[in-house]
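Q: A reviewer asked whether we had any structural model of the full assembly, not just the individual parts. We don't, so I'm hoping you can provide one. Inputs are below.
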Amino acid sequence: MAITAPRALAPTRVDADRRPAPPGRRGRSKVGLVVRIVLAVATAVVMAFPLWIMLTTAFSGQQTFDAEVSVIPQQFSLANFTRVLDAWPVGVWFGNSVVITLITTALTVAVSVLAGYAFAKLVFPAKNVLFLVMLATMMIPTQAILVPQFRIVNGLGLIGTFWAVIVPGAAATFGIFLARQFMLAIPNELMEAAKLDGAGSLRIFWSIVLPLCKPLLAVLTLLALMYQWNDFLWPLIALKDPALYTLPIGLQFLQGQYQTDYGALMAMTLISVAPLVVLFLAFQRFFVQGLATTGIR
Amino acid sequence: MTAVSALPTTAPPVGGGNRRRRPRWDRSAIAFLAPALLLSIGFLIVPMVAAFVYSTARIAPLSGKITWLGLENYATMLSDPVFYRSLLNTALFMLITVPLSMAVGLALAVLMNSVLPGRKVVRTIIYLPLVISGVAVGLIGTFLFNETIGVFNGLATSLGLPNASWQSSGIPAFASLVLITLWIRVGFTMIIYLAGLQAVPQELYEAASVEGATTWQRFRFITFPLLGPSTFFLLIMNVIYSFQVFDTVFVLTNGGPGVATEVLGTYAYKTAFGPARDQGYGAAIGVVIFFLTLIFTIVQWRTNRNRDETA
Amino acid sequence: MALNRRQILTGGLSLGAAAGLSSCAGLTGRSSSDTPSASSSGSGGALQAELTFVNWSGDTEKMAFDAVIKAFEAANPGITVKTETVPYASIQTNLDSRFQAANPPDLFRVSYIDIGQYTSQDVLLDVSGTFDQAKVDAFVPGLWQGVVYDGKPYGVPHQIDTTAILYRLDSFEAAGITNIPTGLDDAWTWEEFAEASRKLAGIVKGKQSPFIYDWQSAGAYRWLSWLFQAGGNALGEDLRTPAIDSDQGRRAVEFTQSFFTNEWVPRNSSVKSATYPDSVFIAGTVAMAFAGDFLLPGIETGVKGKFEYGAMPMPRDVNAASDLGGNAIVAAKDGKNTEAAARFLDFIVTEEQQRTFCEATGQLPTLNALTTTDLDFAVRPELMKTFVEQATTITPEQVRQVTVPQFAQVNTALQAELEKAFLGGASAADTTAALAAAIEKAAP
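A: Here is a predicted structure for the entire assembly that you could use as a starting point for your response.
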């Protein structure tokens, strides 16, 4: 018996090409259009400028910079990349980021979806209180728990391993909130029907609810990926060995080593930024929906 | 951070007579909740409580020996000029970046919501910086804002404009932080506002046009009020972000020159893990950050609730 | 669209998996540095051990350390040394967490200005068993002092660094500076130095400055060279009471403040900045750079013959003085292989090993035999001579002052107060008073 996703589950399309509000009069729209185009182009140029600089500097092969900087690329060379990759285990750092990010993301999504389901659909005592407590934990800044988290993880003997980053990383309650929001919209009739057929909670969750959550899973995965790939402060403290560094830490480390060798620094920045940018460009829709859904009641 | 509707509603009973006795609660919930609860307790709640505890101690760096100090760390804080400066800087940072990023974000959302060729491309360019890590952003910033060999000053020179001392003067250093933060945050604001704008029913605009309202009046009396929930949400998120900012400041200015751009986040880190290695004091500063965030959020929530009620 | 989403996903995942496979070490986790090393067996002859050596190093230093370790392992089959290079900024917390977890590294590198924290907490191995009087006498006395606490030695002074002035010949010519010192005897006085700076200020263009000093970040203590030159001291005889709030102290502050008010140094090169002398000198924006000898290899590579430069001694006033830089290598008292560790310490300061290391890295030796001969430095040996000479101005009294247990806090106070003096317009009197107060507070 096919269950089609009810309309309520279709995620809000933020960047759908809806026809915008009609302007007052046809005649005025020409001038308005030109103004808007100019503004848009200006905005695009300003916003893209830093990334453009990063690109051209990374590929310029230049090591020292004097007071005259050119915005238009003068030459194309991979020298900066080879310099960095030869001297530092960037490949290892990349791999570390990949491993940590993938595992933490998988864990976060699993934990969030399970808990979100419980809060959305199950009945249990102190549900409201527990949920408020979860909400409150979103307020906790990393800086506040740096020291105790360090001592706890150190006591557990995890400092210096990936798990020091992975395990605390999976405690992101933001995902639980998102999952609950999403699952609230699933009609209860579907589950009640299954219950009458004798299915247990786990079965209902696995066979009925989860398949309907594909958009949620996509959004959660992307957001968790993005957050974990870029996470800097806690990994900086938790990963002591340079062989375990993730890309953001490696990046900051190189800042101390290369100081004003911006060619090397920009090359390294490009390497660490590229995967997420590619992912983002390919899955824009989900990223944007995920972020937008958080703001919509 | 959410309106009252965030409180969970219990599932309504199945329609019709259900003569089977239902368990008073779903035992399976334990299994579903366990991982999340364990992780939250272990790595969020316990550390937060521990932070309070450690803030009353001095922990010797090498031996880990703990000496209990009572509230001495907080007393030190009250007479610590660097702490006050960090507090001031954090507040300034929030007061400047939050309204700015919301205003610019809103303006951009309005722009992107209108007829515009290639607006998908422009939109992508605007929110692309979101996915770039704070460290990478800070690094790009160091190149852009370097006083002697940076891009902006280079451009200024070639245009005959004066150079700003982005590293050695407090105000330009702070400005560089604000600018780079705007660059990454504006996209997020724009996304939220775009979604909000598109949820505004067209009929309202049409009715207003019929009544002869100008564009500005339409915006002021229809769009802006209906964006209320989005604004509320953004305020909270952006304020929380600005209280907790660390990566970008650490990499771009590291609190310099002097303590001109030191914020609570970087100060807490430096105290606990820098040369001083005073983890007790660092924990105390962290506690302060937590309370500031909490208080602000509660105040925000209350105001929003009142506003909803009086509306 | 040539590439659809699914293809990107699978492509990305396989790339990631390939990269990730090599990183799986971090999962099973402890890198071998955390696993307790095999315990040493028996005495004499065949010691079996795996030593962990935590340090920080630039590229040339890393290679030089690797060479020493290779030689050591060849001479001591059965002992292996695993190096862990961490960034200088995080080495202290790195060591902290290891000591707290009761798993200290066998060996680590520590700078003379930081060693006091470790010696005073009794976590270092007393090496008097390995270093008898004859061996101790082989060292320059003032420098051996750097590892001595309470009469006992806790490690070996591996090398020292000091600061001298690198200058561009073309700038000096353009400014008409002709009285270039050839040795310590005719080093510039403060007046002569100020005069030269004035001349250079007349010819600099745009963003250039006459010179830059190397007091950034952890190097703030290098300001003390000016204090010592003026005849002042940071600490009194008892090494606890401050002596900085003196006429000499105020004079030193005023003189160095004038660098900023006269715009002789780049404004963004103050004590709290991250603009270091080597990058600025390479970029061609200063005519003179106060630089440590260890920067020479990097500078030589960076300058790449764009301009010619020479070296000259530090300015002098009442005294000639420069800073004690450099590092000791120490062993943890509770390490698992103290005997093997002691052997390593013995090995790295043998004449041959120290010579090879210093010649490769442009750093200065601590053994008498080496300070009196001409080392064949790999990079610009004729310039290194200036540094070698300059190092002879370091007195045992100065060494004692900068190696006190509380020196890290003194360094932090220097950073804070000098920043205010240079960029914040604080008066010299206020600065020295604040420094004295901080030094007093830091005393154990």
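A: Points you may want to mention in the reply: Residues 75 and 249 of chain C are 50 Å apart (CA to CA). Confidence is low (pLDDT under 50) at residues 29-44 of chain C.
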